[in-house]
Amino acid sequence: MYSGFSTSVTGASHIAQNLICQDFSAYFINDEYAVAVVADGHGSKKHFRSDIGSKLAVESTVRVISRFYSNPAEFNRYFPDNHKMVLRNIEKQIIAEWNTKIAEHYHNNSVTIQEKQNFNNAEFESIPVVSYYGTTLVTAVAGKNFSFGFQIGDGSLVGVFEDGETSLLIGYDESNPANITSSMCNSNALTMFSDFYTEEKRPLALFASTDGLYTSFGSDSDFLDYHAIITSRLSESGTFEKFVVRNLKKRSNYGTQDDISLSCVYNSELIKSNPDSVRKIVEEYKKRQMSASHNSTAKNGR
After folding, report:
1. Phi-psi region for residue 226, left (φ > 0), alpha (ψ -120 to 50) or beta?
2. What's the whole-number mean pLDDT along residues 77-87?
3. Strands (E), 96-231
4. Each residue of 259-284: pLDDT tens digit?
5. How far apart are alpha carbons 87 and 293 in whole angstroms?
6. What gap in Å lies between CA 38 and CA 43, rounded to an integer?
7. How far is Cα 252 from Cα 23, in angstroms, rounded to an integer?
């Protein structure tokens, strides 16, 4: 029923400075649900292990969601009427799982001289260990009768639905209220999550991406159009993922120069059985492009 893909590309600025990619992405699919997840390690001075933190955040998320789905029938029965409480419990367990993995990694990997060289002793001693691994997290889950997702920190969740609607499932500003950088490493991380839940319509595709993608676009409408076009090409087996990777590298090179991660889960059967829905998505996109072109021509002709 579900298929998926995920990819992370190293930002142009990181390549120029010989830095590693701080992003990590993955997807997981079985007969009951599908998960798309990305994480963006902060990469700043005190977060010097954030590439590891992002990887552990993604792994923790997949593990916790699988635990909640250990009895699928019970979860599908209970979740719809109690989704707010359950989502909070999922988020709480992800934070706990991530902190456990962080503690294990730190225990097995002492801080090196190279990692400490950018700090004086007082600076280094003031940094909590968990901050070494600071990261954002963005997750979308498609179930049989509902979809849900959550995020902490910047990044985006986009849904493309059976009726052709393409929408941001969590507003970009909601994930970073008052311009505060929300992070898994914050002591009050649980209060910083934003989430969504819907059972009103079936998604053709759900996307999770790090902020390097969103900030490479000039507007929300252009960003959503991008996801609509990607969805229209999901049935192109063999060439699709290569197209996405090339495009993300181009966006980093000529846009934000940041790392970019994109993960997607999609209902392959629904896409194949509903060509009209996919066609509508493309037609609506073309109309918007023609309208934008016409408005630009009219404005320049004044």
Report:
1. alpha
2. 97
3. 137-142, 147-152, 156-161, 166-168, 194-198, 203-209
4. 999 999 999 888 887 767 677 776 76
5. 42
6. 15
7. 13
**Is 87:148 a contact under the CB 8 Å cutoff?**
yes
Domain boundaries, the chain: 2-300
User: How many Å apart are CA 128 and CA 131, to the nearest integer?
Assistant: 5
Separation CA 133–CA 60 (nearest Å): 14
Q: What type of residue sits at position 27?
A: Y
CATH of 2-300, picked from 3.60.40.10, 1.10.10.10, 3.30.365.10, 3.40.190.10, is 3.60.40.10
Distance separating alpha carbons of residues 274 and 236, to the nearest angstrom: 15
* Phi and psi, residue 242, nearest 5°: -65, -40
Query: Which residues face 5 on adjacent strands?
Result: 264
Q: Exposure pattern of 67-105 as b/e (b: 16+ CB <10 Å)?
A: ebbeeeeebbeebeeebeebbeebbebbbebbbebbeeb
- Tokens, residue 111: 């801080």
* pLDDT tens digits for range 99-131: 999 999 999 999 999 999 989 999 999 999 999
Nearest Cα neighbor of 139 from 90, 178, 73, 80 is 90
Q: How far apart are CA 257 and CA 107, in angstroms?
A: 34
- 291 pLDDT more than 70: no
- The model's pTM is 0.91
